[in-house]
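Action item from last week, closing it out:
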Amino acid sequence: MKRRQVLTATAVATAATLGTAATASAAPGHGEHTPPGLAKKDTLAWAAGGVIEIGSAVAGGGHHTEQDYPTPMSEEIYRETLGREVTSLSAENQMKWDYLRPDRETFDFEDADEIMDFAQQHGQVVRGHTLLWHAQNPTWLEEGDFSADELRDLLKEHIDTVVGRYRGRIQQWDVVNEIFTDEGELRLNDNIWLRELGPGILADAFRWTRAADPDALLFFNDYNVDGVSAKSDAYYALITELLAEGVPIDGFSTQGHLSLRYDFPEDITENLQRFADLGLETAITELDVRMDLEEGATPTEQQLEQQADYYRRMTEAALSVEGCNSLTLWGFPDVYSWVPGTFEGEGAATVLWDDYTRKPAYYAVQDALAEASGRAGHPALRR
C-alpha cells in the first residue's frame, strides 16, 4: 500500500513553499513529453490536433470509494486509455475539500499528486476542481462552530496551500463552483461560504487564487448553464460586476451534464459567445449524456444515435466559440460513471462501454474534432 502523504496545518507554509520551489520553472500547459495519443493517431487527442484541449475526469474518490471495483487509477487499461486519449485531466473528486481535508489539521495530497504526476508524464494539462463549493465539504467544516473570521481564514489557508502546492502546474482552476440555483438566486442557505461570509467572499477567493498561482486561469463553473437562462443570466450579471471591480476572473464554464430526457440546448453557442465577448475564456468541463436505462438493460440503437448527436453538437459548440479552449468528458468508461448512483433509472452516459470499446458517441466527438483540426478523412480514422 502506498504511504499517504499528509500535511498538518502547522506545516502548511512549508508545504506551499516546497510546492512552489519544485514547480517554479514549470510553465503552465503541457509537460515535457509528447502526449502518447498524438503519436497513435486513432484517438481523441490526435483528432483534436491542437485546436482544443480534449480532456477527461480522472475517476476516484467520492462514490468510487463505496463500489466493489478496484481504484480506477490502479487498473492498467484505465491508465493506458487515460494517457492515450486526452490532453487534459480533471480530478473528479480528489481535489475537493472532503477528500483533501479529512480533518481540520490534515491535508492529504496523495491522490491529487498522483494525477499531477500522471499528467506531467503524459504531457497533459490539468484543470483544478474545485476550491469554493457548497457540496462535498467535510463534516468538521460544515458542523464546526467557527466564527466568520475563522471561516475566512480557513478558506484562505486552503487556497494558499492547495493552489500554492501546484503553482505553475495547473492550467485552469474552478475557483467558484455552483453558487446559483436554477432560478438565478445565490445559494445563501446551503453554501457555508456565502451564508456565513456573504457574496464578497467570491471576489476574495479569486484574488487569493491569483496570488497563489498567477499563471492559472480562474473560472466560475456550474451545471444547467449551457444555454441562456435565469441561471446563466445571473452569472453574466455577477461576472460583469466583478470584472468592473478588477476581480481576476479569466473564464466561465458550463459543465454539460445532459440527459436524453431533455432537448439539446440549442443556444449554447450564443450563451458561450456572450461570455467570450466579456473577454473571458470559456470551457465545457464535465460533459456526459445520460439516458433512461433499466438496471442491466442495453441502450437501444435510437438512444445511442441520439446520445452521439448530443455529444457531437456539444463538441461543435465548443469548437465554434473563439476562446473556448477546453472540452472535458466526465470520465470513461460507463463502469466508473457517477450517473447511475445519482440519477435513478439513468445510465450509459460516457463514450466507452465497460470493456473500453467505443460507442457511437466516441466517434461523434472524434469526427467533430477531426473536422475542426483538418484531420477528417485521415486513413487512421477510417472504420
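Closing note: Residues 1-36 have pLDDT under 50 and may be disordered.
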